[in-house]
Amino acid sequence: xxxxxxxxxxxxxxxxxxxxxxxxxxxxxxxxxxxxxxxxxxxxxxxxxxxxxxxxxxxxxxxxxxxxxxxxxxxxxxxxxxxxxxxxxxxxxxxxxxxxxxxxxxxxxxxxxxxxxxxxxxxxxxxx
Length: 128
Fold this sequence. Notes:
Elements: E1 2-10, H1 19-34, E2 38-43, E3 51-56, E4 59-64, E5 72-81, H2 85-98, E6 106-111
Antiparallel strand pairs: 1-5, 1-6, 2-5, 3-4
């Protein structure tokens, strides 16, 4: 099964990844890619460079970033290959541990849906 782990950060914290964090993260990502548990990962550019498009009551609107009303934003993501949600949680915990105590980071993990991601269309879908 595949899971999306969305990395939530406080963009206004002023923290930037250290060289050591980048090296440690690189090693972890290399290991997880090699063992097949990490399918893809990427960071996201700051919200100041983003755009939100919304549709409400049939009308579309667009807002340029930064999105000041949002304290935490999605700063990156990882697509994980795992046998269960618990395994996806354990993989995500490894990622969070690499950041060390100075980072306030949270990940939201959700299973990707559909037969191409390891869940049969309705067979493993939980009731909403």
